[in-house]
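Q: Hi! First time asking for a complex rather than a single chain. Here are the components, and I think there are two in total. Is that enough to go on?
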Amino acid sequence: MLTATMEDVVTTIPSEEPTSDVALAAAGDRQAFERVYRANVQRVFSICVRMCGDRGRAEELTQDAFVRAWEKLPLFRGESAFSTWLHRLAVNVVLNDRKVLGRERARAANGDDDEDGEALYGASAPPSHADRMDLEAAIELLPPGARRVFVLHDVEGYRHEEIAEMLGVTSGGSKAQLHRARLLLREALNR
Amino acid sequence: MTNRPLTCEQFDAALSDYLENALDPAERTALESHASTCDRCRALLAELSAIPTEAGALHDLEPSRDLWPAIAQRIAAPVVALPGAAARRERRPSVRPWYLTPASLAAAAAVLIAVTASVTALAIRTGRTSAPAGAVAANNPAPAAQPNDSQIDIPAPAPRVTNASATRPNAVPVQEVYAREIAELDSIVRDQRSHLDTSTVTVIEKNLHIINQAIAQSRAALARDPNSGFLHHQLNDALNQKISLLRTVALLPART
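A: Yes, that's all I need. Here is the structure of the assembled complex.
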């Protein structure tokens, strides 16, 4: 199963919340789960917003991720750090959401949504970033495919093999998207 | 790659592999050698190499609002279990509300099934060849044992309503069957409404209003022309849409 496989290979990240809160939450203690939420919400939100490129949607996805974490907590076996498990769960929530939206957008655009990437930082760049765009803003404007690979690889530290499995692409495809993302980011940051 | 100096095009082509540490030592040396003599390629290499470092140092971001209240409401509200999920799920202690227990969820599903099954049964007793479309899925016997109990059926197009039932002494008029099912579902939806997000409720109410208007218009037209097959069909369609919407809402997880 994908989740189990990926959880096994993800590098362990030190957990910030006391283990007891995770255990209590897994047993159904909502107050403990709120503490778990408070300790992790910024990390989860960061993943969501960088992956989907839409802050409003990212807030909804963050809520979805924590609701899903609440539902899945009894299945958390502690074989990886809780934060690693939670981050991966958040990535899955975003990717599953993307699949739905992606299908709709693909139908609407009748083509690959990434094909417009080269024009991304053209005249349509937001005026608020007119001076010099920072990396965060530049990531937000990347084409979806390149953005997902970049965030997963360069921000979150996943390997190409893991990303390929998550996104259903080849490892070579992941590498190509990453290089493209870096080139686009460089172009944006040099404007 | 050979020992000859690289061109900028060759440099560009090899750069991705270089950054991925996928070049052999000779290729790496050739690429670095080119970069040391070409301003354009040296800048490109330096800037691309810096991006992963900068990306890894990005700070966490904060949502614009506290997301916990909505999460708390969602995890406290009833959720319709997905098929198979209950079997995999470990038993939670009694901290969870009673309406989250598998038994209560099963009971809720059974209510829905019973409603649709009763519609089917009633319609069959009328001697019709088709039941209200909202009950079509219940024609399959023993639905409680089906793994898809919690899934929402999409009603098939409604059959034409005729006046045949009125001529049978024991027949239940189809409109009465519809009314009974809608009343049952309305009751469930009323309970469910408080657990739903306000934007969801708004969408539901808007759609219900449109469907109710269509029902009212069809009935008004039928009052003037009671023998119109087309109008019966239109009314039936609208009622089926209402049943479908109510059933969907009844099975919605909270705060969606």
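A: Chain B touches chain A at residues 15-16, 19-20, 44, 47-48, 51-52, 54-56, 58, 60-65, 67-68, 70-72, 74-76, 79, 88-90, 92-96, 255 (CB under 8 Å). Let me know if you'd like any chain examined more closely.
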